[in-house]
Design brief:
Layout (H helix, E strand, L loop, with lengths): L14 H5 L1 E5 L2 E2 L6 E5 L1 E3 L12 E3 L1 H12 L5 E5 L2 H8 L5 E5 L1 E5 L2 E5 L2 E2 L1 H8 L5 E9 L5 E10 L7 H12 L11 H14 L8 H18 L1 H5 L5 H20 L9 H32 L8 H10 L1 H10 L4 H7 L15 H17 L6 H8 L4
Helix pairs in contact: 10-11, 11-12, 14-15
Amino acid sequence: MKPKTHPQTIPHDHFNDVIKMGVAACAITVTPTGEVQLFPAGEFRAADGRPKDAPHWRIDAELATAIIADFESRQNLTVIDYEHQTMLTAENGKPAPAAGWFSKLEWRDTGLYAVAVQWTNRASQMIADGEYRYISPVFTYDRKTGSIHRLINAALTNNPALDGMEAVAASQLSRLTDSTPNNPIQETPKMEGLMEQLRWMLNLPVTATVDEIATELQKAIDQIKGAAASAVSAPGFDIAALVMTQAEQIATLTASAINPDPSRFVPVEDMKVLHLELAKLRNEKLEREVESVVTKAIAEGRILPSQETWAKSLGFVNMASLQDYIATAQPIAALTRRQSTDDNPGSDGLDLNDSAAIAKAARQYQREQEQLGIAISTAQAVDFVTATR
């Protein structure tokens, strides 16, 4: 992809491209000649392992063409100073003397060079005497690809990896690119400060890019909208007020958990006693209901007296099943007649002293039960038809 050029006046619609770039300084050995190599061709890294926010730095002929075009659009010579003092002077108040000047760049197979460099006598002598060994260019690069976009200036240095140099370079970028009052790039230092605040708020590392910050910020926004939809949609929504309100609510709930109000709670032992009493009342009520249902069923001849214990046990476990059984059971006429005769053995037409009559009644009872799907033995049938009141 062909890189974008960055003239000194950067249009507003390219401002996002600027803040997505990194600013760095690296170093290459220098000699006291009129030519200085600023970057090697291809991909490269600093001796200390930088860049940490890009896969590498890189420059080729196509990128160099754009860099040279941008560089040649400047009206002033570009400075080579000592130890990047041009950028540090605003902080330490020390002078920033020039070591040299240049206004022309040239691409070669081995890299990008500053040509026709005008060294000061002092700088030439210091280089020749070995007092300075490296040239350190300051440049912008794409944090995603590592492609070099723009040359800012250069410095003589003996420390190829100055601590904090990237931050210093970023903070001075707008001043060193001759920006105009209407140039949005003047906001870069403010944007860097804003990025630092957002990294802190989102608990991101200092190397987090703009895209990474934007992604995490959107996640936070989505979570706030989901957790406090009514507050967010209310007029005059204030996120700081929302955070304060939620903090107060958490503090109140925490205090309540640590120091509960005794008047709002029942002691555990009292609750246990209450549950036991309630269970006892429910059992007593169920016993009365089962007793009533079974007694009535026996009286109607729907249950044998010998089935009383079984019927009550079923009722305690599942009253609905017992009631269904009783509803489908056919009343046994012999039993109901027997229960209605007091102590008169012959009043219901069955002579208890007539074995043949008893056998006949027992077989009739068995047939009635078989029609209901109930198997009754002869002994049970005899016991049923001869049962007393």
